[in-house]
Design brief:
The chain is built from 18 helices and nine strands. The chain has a five-stranded parallel sheet, with helices on both faces. A four-stranded mixed sheet has the order 1-2-3-4. Bound molecules: adenosine-5'-diphosphate and magnesium ion (MG).
Length: 468
């Protein structure tokens, strides 16, 4: 059977004809011309934009049903509009025009991936309204990514920073900055459809879409987004299907001049188990890293957080806090929250003594001075195996797990680099360590018993630190 645009459209018409009155059929469907069929995308030509909008408003269900019946669940309809005798092929550059603007011959046409009925639907941005540029303290450590973010906010999709990739260690403000850009764009232009999604959530959506046989709808949904923010793309690692779908969405949005903002806990080149073609795309735009804040910036951030909590502290107390909490802004915030809790709930005055106590809890957890060796001993003892086993080449599941877990703890509770952690486990390279961190994270998400083991070990590591 030959399947061309004419026969497909004729079949659609016979389906549609059965469900609507003769007169509207004549008015709204007879003037339509099928122009192209490529894969599962049928392109039809309608006389003008109003015509198209009318179809979408009134006949979307009928059209959708006919298309799906003819072309299967992947079937998509693309409109082409004739503008003052100029025929234009659907261009992904379509921007909704403001009312009052006059039509001109170069008016771009509709998004070729538009599926009837989906285009007009407003997507919740999922942005956190508290993460703005106003609450984001600027310092040497974040000036570069911060100003790139601001430039993007002023002209989403219109700068060379596409994608913008913000990377940096945990707690340095990647998520905050990404939201700030999104919020700023929304503030400047309500029409821009911004969407924030974590890589975890995106992955789950992909899994659901595959299960429900609706990958195509899923991809179409993402086509409507003007500014896509994907947080923590390091979690794309080892997820080939998610990567494939993300790759397609990325390409379509990028081609359409839509803005993409990504965050990662490492530079693109250090992403492991992520396809090269994706990594090379990531390098198209701007890769900017957030560094640990210097003392002055920490003081400014602390002031901001105190202001937010309506709390004021003596200068020497602030200085003490910023001297001790060095590399993670989330922890700086944690200290403030603890202090607020202590002073309001327990009605304690915030003096040096209290601050020392609070910091001690934090610093003991975070000031990474436990050694990799002591972690290995703790883990080996916990699982009742000789320490040397952790270095061995064995693939025994429990040994592999204990080793991965040790690496995970070493990364989180020492200052050792990935490379030196690898070295201290029988000369493994840094990508093995990254893989282990991911494996532990995945297992914690799925295996409750394993998670209990991790929690117990973390407690032991912290106790070691406190008793130091
Ligand atoms: P990451 O995503 O890099 O792990 P987050 O963006 O979650 O870090 O930041 C951790 C916390 O520190 C957040 O509550 C955020 O508001 C705060 N924070 C980070 N950077 C700044 C900054 N420059 N100014 C004010 N607060 C910040
Ligand atoms: Mg984050």
């Amino acid at each position: 059977m030959i399947r061309d645009h004419i026969s497909v459209w004729n079949n659609c018409l016979s389906i549609i004809k059965k469900t609507i009155e003769a007169q509207p059929f004549k008015t709204w469907f007879e003037p339509i011309k099928p122009v192209n069929l490529e894969k599962d995308v049928l392109t039809i030509q309608v006389p003008n934009k109003f015509f198209y909008e009318w179809l979408e408003e009134n006949y979307v269900d009928v059209i959708k049903k006919a298309i799906k019946t003819e072309l299967g669940f992947r079937g998509t309809l693309n409109y082409q509009i004739t503008v003052e005798n100029h025929r234009q092929v659907g261009s992904p550059d379509f921007r909704q025009k403001k009312t009052g603007q006059t039509d001109d011959a170069t008016e771009p046409v509709l998004n070729p991936f538009a599926i009837p009925g989906i285009r007009k639907f407003k997507v919740e941005s999922q942005l956190n309204p508290g993460y703005t540029f106003d609450t984001f303290v600027e310092g040497e450590c974040n000036r570069f990514p911060g100003s790139a973010g601001m430039a993007i906010a002023k002209k989403p999709g219109g700068t060379a920073f596409n994608p913008l990739i913000v990377y940096g260690d945990v707690g340095l403000g990647k998520t905050h900055l990404a939201h700030a850009v999104g919020n700023e764009i929304t503030k400047r232009n309500q029409d821009k459809q911004v969407l924030y999604v974590t890589t975890e959530k995106f992955t789950n959506q992909v899994i659901q879409a595959i299960k429900a046989n609706s990958v195509n709808d899923f991809m179409n949904f993402y086509q409507m987004i003007d500014v896509l923010i994907v947080d923590d793309i390091q979690f794309l690692s080892n997820r080939p299907k998610t990567q494939e779908i993300f790759f397609n969405i990325f390409n379509q949005l990028h081609q359409a001049g839509k803005q993409i903002i990504l965050t990662s806990d490492r530079a693109p080149k250090d992403l492991v188990e992520v396809e090269d073609r994706l990594i090379s795309r990531f390098k198209w735009g701007l890769v900017a890293d957030l560094k640990a804040p210097d003392f002055g910036t920490r003081m400014k951030i602390l002031d901001k957080k105190l202001e937010g909590e309506n709390l004021s502290l003596a200068p020497e107390i602030k200085e003490y806090i910023c001297t001790h909490i060095k590399s993670n802004i989330r922890e700086l915030e944690g200290v403030v929250i603890s202090l607020v809790a202590q002073s309001t709930l327990n009605r304690r005055e915030i003096d040096m003594k209290l601050v020392r106590e609070v910091i001690r809890q934090f610093v003991s957890m975070v000031e990474k001075e436990v050694s990799v060796e002591s972690i290995k001993h703790l883990v080996a003892k916990h699982f009742n195996m000789p320490v040397e086993k952790l270095h061995s080449k064995t693939r025994l599941r429990e040994v592999v797990m204990a080793r991965q877990l040790s690496m995970y703890l070493a990364k989180n509770y020492t200052n050792s680099s990935l490379k030196s952690i690898g070295d201290s486990f029988g000369g493994r390279d840094h990508s093995t360590v990254i893989h282990s961190l991911k494996a532990v994270q995945d297992l914690m998400d799925t295996d409750l018993i394993f998670k209990d083991n991790v929690t117990a070990l973390v407690k032991k590591v912290k106790t070691t630190l406190v008793n130091k």
